[in-house]
Every structure is written in C-alpha cells, then in structure tokens.
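Section handout 9: paired folding examples.
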Amino acid sequence: MIKPRHEMNSAIEIDLNGPDGNAFVLMGFAKSYSKSLGWTTRKSDMLLKRMQSGDYDNLVDEFDKAFGHIVTLYR
C-alpha cells in the first residue's frame, strides 16, 4: 500500500519522491530483498521483468505487490 509521506513509520520505508524512488534504485532494492527472502533467481528475474513491462506506476505497483508486507512506500 502506498501511503502519504506524513505517515512514515515502517521499519523499511521508501520515499518515492526522493532518490530511493528512482526506477533503477527500486529494481536494485527488489533484487536485494528477493535475495534476502530466499527467492529463486527465476522468481526474482520474473519480478524484475514485470516491473520493467510498463511505466513507472506499473514498476511501483509490482514492487509493492511483492514487498508491501515488509516495505512501506510514500509519495
């Protein structure tokens, strides 16, 4: 779930308006988090492919679907 920036309070938080909101940075986080969670290379690669299959909003949505349980995104 993407929340307003003023609600920041999660252990892992990403402000999409800052440098961590860059598409390439988010893909790097996705690769790192998937490895930390023990995902297979195939599963991680499939997520990255889905993230790159559309525009920036699609990338953020796919990231949120995969990691929303451990990461809070803010706009």
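Moving on to protein 2 of 2.
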Amino acid sequence: MKPDEKEVNSKADFISFLVELSNNYKKSPGEWENKNLGDFFEAMSGWVGDMDGYYKNNNKEEPTDINWDFIANMFLAAKIYE
C-alpha cells in the first residue's frame, strides 16, 4: 500500500504510515518533489499555511482539534532521537 492510500486513525497506524513513507522515499525518490529535508520542511510549512484550501478543494472537513504543540514536539524529538 502506498502511504497516500493509508488511513491513519491510531498511533500504530501513524507509525506504519511513517515507515511506509520512509520506504517510499528510499525506493522511489523520483516521486518526491522535495528531495532534501530543508525543502521538505519548507513545503510542509507552506501546506499548513494553505491547508484550508486543500480541505475545501477536496470536499473534506478541516480538522479543528489539531494539537500543534504535540506536532512541534514530535519534530524536535526526531531531531535528536536515535
């Protein structure tokens, strides 16, 4: 299953999604527009800034209960976690 076809509803689903996303990057780097971490983070911040448009254009309800502090901590931890 490709990472973009995976439904994420739990911690286990999210871990599986991240593993599949990492494997996709390793096996199919040509599918990735952002080939380095700096570009990836820049694209992510741009998408978050425009995510209301993504949800509107895809007829999806934009989530209102996002824990931004948790997401930030996850990225900070991954910076040093081995």
